[in-house]
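Predicting holo structure, iron/sulfur cluster bound.
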Amino acid sequence: MYSYEELESGVIQAGVCTGCGACISACPLYYIQLIDGMPRRPKKRAACKNCGTCFNSCYKVKGESYGDNTGRYLRAVSAKWDHGTQCQDGGIVTAILRYAYEMKLIDGAVLTCRDNNSWMPVPCVAKSADDFDASSKTKFGVSPVLMDLRPAVVEHGLNKLCVVGTPCHIQSLRHLQRSNADVSSAVALTIGLFCSGNLEYRHIAERIHTLGIRPEDVEKLAVSNGRFIIKAGDRSESIPLSEIKSWVPGHCSFCRDYTGELADISIGSEGSPEGWSTVIIRTEKGEEIFSGLEKSTAVSVSGIGSAELERLKRASEAKRNSQNSYVI
Ligand code: SF4
Ligand code: SF4
Ligand code: SF4
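Done. Tokens:
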């Protein structure tokens, strides 16, 4: 039987681990921890049951699944939350979380928060509207969101969770559900965030420092028109993405999902005007929640032009075709 050793050699040391955190949640004995950004089984070698659960929980072992272009969907719109002035790109993720929570369709969420005053991304469990608001705004850096799945269920007692993450998190979560991993049945909704590639946080922190900006003064990090933007007060610094290719983690070169094809709802800025988000509603569950939110009149919604949709499909296709493949 394959076990942690094979996960370590075949995925982690092979450089294809995306740091999704699923194997950390999968180990029922909490033997796997996040150390230096990677899942590790420290000092527990003798105690490890060699049950293979961690190996089997890894979506990189069993393979990812993709549809055509942007994946299957029911409809796609542009939207913004009318009360989301403090949020980024329309605040639609926060609006959906707040609505689903209010309607008791979810009882919490696992997503990415900021570490204290910095912009370092850390996974967190959100259990209130205030928590959802606090987790808004785009963060860059590897965030092992799924490592908080087990604590959300076992320690916080949640059983109708929303998982918000990049396509790698959603691919991984769907693999957990297909494998009937115990904690995965507590997930009621998934929101996938468009992602063409991540940036390692340590490089961002270094650049913020070099620019003489205090991390607590940074108001927004974003990628727009081929540039990485750092906004702090009156300052807006932008760096061409071509200059920071080395900031992209190596594992992103194996990823072929741009829009979060397996999510209930996918959200990103591509295809919509500044201040709005593109929302791809993919499943009945996603439709139920988004159409409920629309009726609540808390959001403005408009159609997406065929040219914008075509651009989104081309971006998805480009990512699909340009990446490496890896089979363990
Ligand atoms: S006990 Fe099982 S799931 Fe946990 S580290 Fe060992 S093999 Fe992996
Ligand atoms: S489950 Fe996720 S975090 Fe664990 S080894 Fe696989 S890709 Fe890495
Ligand atoms: S490019 Fe893929 S692996 Fe990298 S952060 Fe985005 S979704 Fe995850």
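The chain has eleven helices and 13 strands.
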